[in-house]
Amino acid sequence: MLDENVELIPQEIDIYFELMLAQDCSTVQIRNALQHLKSTIIEKTSVYGVDIEQELDSKLLDVEAAILRYKDIEQLKNWVINILQFIIDIIKVHRNNNVFTLIDKVRIYINENFRNEELTLTSVAEYFNLTPQYLSLMFKNECEENFLKYLTALRLDKAKELLRTTSKKVYEIGQEVGYSNYQYFCTVFKRKCRS
């Protein structure tokens, strides 16, 4: 499944779950099918040099807990799709050499685009073909701060520099560092620069 076009995975999962519904599978049969799917995923990801059980929190792959948590088949299907998307992101990272290289690329991208007020975790994740959840987790693990703190600190450092070195008005500096709303910029600046 993971060898094929990743865009087809949600459709394949839909078919997989439709078959279970059509066959009116019992909870035991669904559990067995999900355990088999889990084993297949672990086996397939090892081909890419990824130990998925080590990469993911074991709770994410806990079929028993998922069956207890999600009472209907649609919720279980969404759980599987989300896990598979997360796994695909991990494989992409491993294919791109290593996590640090990708994080370096993300930081460079943020440093080049922080002036854009539309820059968000989601937009950066889309640019790098990752889910926002995975980028957030990776960013926090590798940078020891979350994405928003990093972006805010970068913008405020540049704002401080501009305040010291130019005669621009405060609202102009706010716009130049990615804050179109003058009042919001002042609020963030005061709150972050006091601490």
- Measured as a percent range, the helix fraction is over 70%
Report Rg. Answer: 22 Å
| CATH-level-4 superfamily name of the largest domain | Homeodomain-like
Q: Beta-strand level of the residues, as a percent range?
A: under 5%
Task: Determine the mean pLDDT.
Answer: 83
Question: In sequence order, what are the helices and strands, one letter per element?
Answer: HHHHHHHHHHH
| CATH architecture grouping of the largest domain | Orthogonal Bundle
By CATH, the topology of the largest domain is Arc Repressor Mutant, subunit A
Sheet with most strands: none
| CA(first)-CA(last) distance | 50 Å
Number of helices: 11
Broad CATH class of the largest domain: Mainly Alpha
Based on Cα principal axes, name the global outline.
Answer: elongated
Uncertain spans, ≥5 residues at pLDDT below 50?
Answer: none
Estimated structural class: mainly alpha
Short overview:
This protein is mainly α and 195 residues long.
General description of the model:
- This protein folds into two domains: 6-95; 99-194, Arc Repressor Mutant, subunit A.
- Helices cover 72% and strands 0% of the residues.
- The chain contains eleven helices and no strands.
- It has helices spanning 9-22, 27-46, 52-55, 63-69, 73-95, 99-113, 121-127, 132-143, 147-165, 170-176, 182-194.
- The termini are far apart.
